[in-house]
Amino acid sequence: MRKGELTRQAILDVAVRMARYSGLSGLTIGSLAAAADMSKSGVYAHFKSKEALQLACMERNAEQFIDEVIRPALAKPRGVARLQAIVEHWMSWYSHPGGCLFLAAAAEFDDLPGALHDRMVVQQRDMLDSLARIAATAVAEGEFHEDTDVFQVAQEVFGILLSYNWMERILRYPGAADGAWAAFNRLIDSHTD
Amino acid sequence: MRKGELTRQAILDVAVRMARYSGLSGLTIGSLAAAADMSKSGVYAHFKSKEALQLACMERNAEQFIDEVIRPALAKPRGVARLQAIVEHWMSWYSHPGGCLFLAAAAEFDDLPGALHDRMVVQQRDMLDSLARIAATAVAEGEFHEDTDVFQVAQEVFGILLSYNWMERILRYPGAADGAWAAFNRLIDSHTD
DNA sequence: GAATTTTAAGCACGACCGTGCTACTTTTAT
DNA sequence: ATAAAAGTAGCACGGTCGTGCTTAAAATTC
What we know:
Two copies of one chain form a homodimer. By secondary structure, chain A is mainly alpha-helical. Chain A has nine helices and no strands.
């Protein structure tokens, strides 16, 4: 019982790493088995279907995101410092080899029905909510104006992150990070004055 | 000779529409043939390979983008008005059924080598350059400060567009458009004051 | 209208897909 | 140590993939 869970996690680690390159749909059980040094049926037995495997990848990826982005940010003091911390770690997150699986999943399933789509939307909403919640601490601490729309802040911060991702890893534009921080600082200023 | 080109274009129209949902990798010749009411080999004969078909889709999509986004913007007077116009049409572009093929391609090929990746990067760069070039007209017209970094503006505008796309079509957040325009206006203000 | 080129379908190929079943080996519990 | 359970591989299935070749129909040119 314990051994099984162990290899299951090992498989998932490989699967997530592969899916960052090929996407969740591009992931195949055959190539995954080869990469994990197992037989196809050996891998398959751990997930009752391909869709279950894909969903498990999404969950595993979300756990990693929490570990690498959310938790480090929550360790910082509430307010702007925490907001800056999450942006910082988020930018590092984007530089994972193969790219961000959240973004890949969003592009893959954005207009297709199904369980994968639904889970993806929930995860995206959770990520946005994390940003909004942290922005709210800046309001509570008196750093942001009382009437700040924290969802607006979340949307704009997310935009900064997304365009950073594009400029950095697709266009390989050297000024991507500087540009992102400049935009971020102006955003903060406009809400603190 | 003429009839062939005609059906080729018809096939491409269907292909692009399908690829908006499934992505360029998810597009298969079998399903494309079915959707175009042709045999697999009939479709295949118009493109010597799957990769060629995918590249042709990218080109066709780019043409449409120029027609629906770039050209309408260029019809507006140089400067902020033109910048606002391109954002407006760009936002409409994103609401195509299935989503934006540029974004899908970027997510699919961002870290994979090959001709599709290379073409995708060029197209993304062209889009960014269009934004920067229009921002430059705002500088030339004296609306933006002399020392404005037009690539910085392009990056930020692109971020606004990307996050709008996410909020609107994935999260279905009703305030997405308002949020995007609020961010846009603040961006303009900070460069004009 | 005849000759020729272009377009499309039929068909077959090897490969790989997701999925199950069966049998054997390894791990766990007694 | 033995019995039970869990994990893994082998193998086979129907299906679809991209790709080519061959042949009939259609469109174009003379």
